[in-house]
Automatic annotation (TrEMBL):
Subunit details: Homodimer.
CDD domains: HisRS-like_core (cd00773), HisRS_anticodon (cd00859)
Subcellular location: Cytoplasm
Organism: Kaistia dalseonensis
Protein name, UniProt field: Histidine--tRNA ligase
InterPro entries per record: aa-tRNA-synth_II, aa-tRNA-synth_II/BPL/LPL, Anticodon-bd, Anticodon-bd_dom_sf, His-tRNA-ligase, HisRS-like_core, HisRS/HisZ, HisRS_anticodon
The keyword Protein biosynthesis is assigned to this record: yes
Amino acid sequence: MAEKEKSNALKARLPRGLVDRHAGAIKAADRMIATIRGIYELYGFEPVETPLIEYTDALGKFLPDQDRPNEGVFSFQDDDEQWLSLRYDLTAPLARFVAENFDQLPKPYRSYRNGWVFRNEKPGPGRFRQFMQFDADTVGAASPAADAEMCMMMADTLEALGIQRGDYVIRVNNRKVLDGVMESIGLTGPENAGRRLSVLRAIDKLDKFGPEGVELLLGAGRKDESGDFTKGSGLDETAIKQVMSYVAAQDSVGNEAAVQRIRASAALGTSGVAGVEELDQIATIVGAAGYGERIKIDPSVVRGLEYYTGPVFEAELLFETVNEDGQPARFGSVGGGGRYDGLVGRFRSEPVPATGFSIGVSRLMAALSALGKISVEAEAGPVVVTVFDRDRMGEYQKMVKDLRDAGIRAELYLGGSGPKAQLKYADKRNSPCVIIQGSDEKAKGVVQVKDLALGKQMSAIIADNAAWREGRPAQVEVPEADLVATVRAIVERRAGE
């Protein structure tokens, strides 16, 4: 046997950490984004769009070294040897935009934007290299009222998307308070940067490991159920008690009590005291506006990005669902943000206050799908007009035009297959119905309209093939003049289902 000839075709493969999106997911995301946009505009925010690519040094978090930018961003050199990077969030590009157009923009400048962001990180379950965010920001307002408004707008957004009160909470903390805690336990200065980060990571694990687990991580370390050991921050007993006293404020009933417990938890220094006062103002504002039960002061909130300078917040979903292993699970955080007063000021000789919130579109969409509030299944496709007589293409196209003129999605089958394959094609397109007109139907001035969805339903109860062929269920013959009305009734019934 002759050796099989080798193929030179490229192997079709998707890079790690990326996903293809089908029509159902795209349309579901579009509906969700339209709802979010409506709330943001109700609050007076205006859209703005920035490019996917920025100069690397403008992004702020990652700066180029001698050879290439640090890990975390996708970067390349321009023809003038300038480093460019794909944006890793939507906030850093906004800071550049505001700084570049500062004199022309109203202050405060209230804007929103959505788009893809990119992380050059190791992908994993639920962790992608490309994902979509939807942000809103107020630049030029130093008052904690701007931070409170962000939290209230996020609560309104979640409810507009169908998430009930009690199924979510907006948690609020302040990086100044966290800095004050670090100062109180002696972890100041650049030499303690690593230990400060370790302490913050331990606090961030409160929901996952509980107070006992956090206490272990603050000390020597913690061993999990599998036996893996995580090295701790190495604090002494006095420092651990101070941190745990601060963290305990999250058990408070009501925001006023939480603020008082944070204020009494440790000697927070000038910065920490200022942070507590900002939390107090936020608690007062959201309480007066009727959001006190939905927005919670929580000292365990730790946002990862280094540019946060004041209040920080996270939107957390509280309802349980089932994971891939059939175990109860929570979606957790679906968005977050905070105050970043230093980011715009990097481009100017003056500080510029700013605060914002970012929604993780893909994660929130998965949560809404689990709640049954949004469907990512493919919607009904277009009506398909089949072709039985190739010399009558113009007449078939006229049928398609009549349907489109009536506002009905429709297409003419343009492939080269026969009748049976055309029906299979319409089924794959998820068409509500197909139009059939051969020479016999044309001579009588009629068309056959086959309701595909109804046909599937009836096929489940008609077991006899002969009866099926004889009855031709879900297929009706109507005059050509009644084509549009007949199809409209089928499409509307399908939409209602």
